[in-house]
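Good morning C.,

I know you're traveling, so I'll keep this short. The sequence:
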Amino acid sequence: MTEERFGRLTALSEVEGWPDRPSLRFLVYWALRREELCDVKLCPDSPDPSTSLRTGYGGRCEKCPLNRLDAAQHSEAGQLLRRALDLRAAIKMGIMLGLEEIAADEFYAMLAIEEAQDQYEKERVGKS
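The tokens, ready to paste straight into the viewer:
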């Protein structure tokens, strides 16, 4: 997955490019690049702080892709991502888990996270 494939989503445009049912890999990709989705300080559609409390968007405009990313956590793919991240954290903490204790979809999600993180780190090294 490359940034060219998904394009840079901003609060200003292309929110329509966000899929109705984002895939696991799509969510992993943008979760790693969350800061690239929107800069509330630069978004002219971002509500002023006095209305943010009333609207519940916390400084984000209604079309902000960060809201979509956050909402996607409740989707099937988002919940799978959360379980895979929790499993990775448990393993890093030294909790012993056998492969038979990890569901196939969770293992696949863990692999997708590893691949995406490796790609993200390569991109960051290439930019510096």
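Safe travels,
E.
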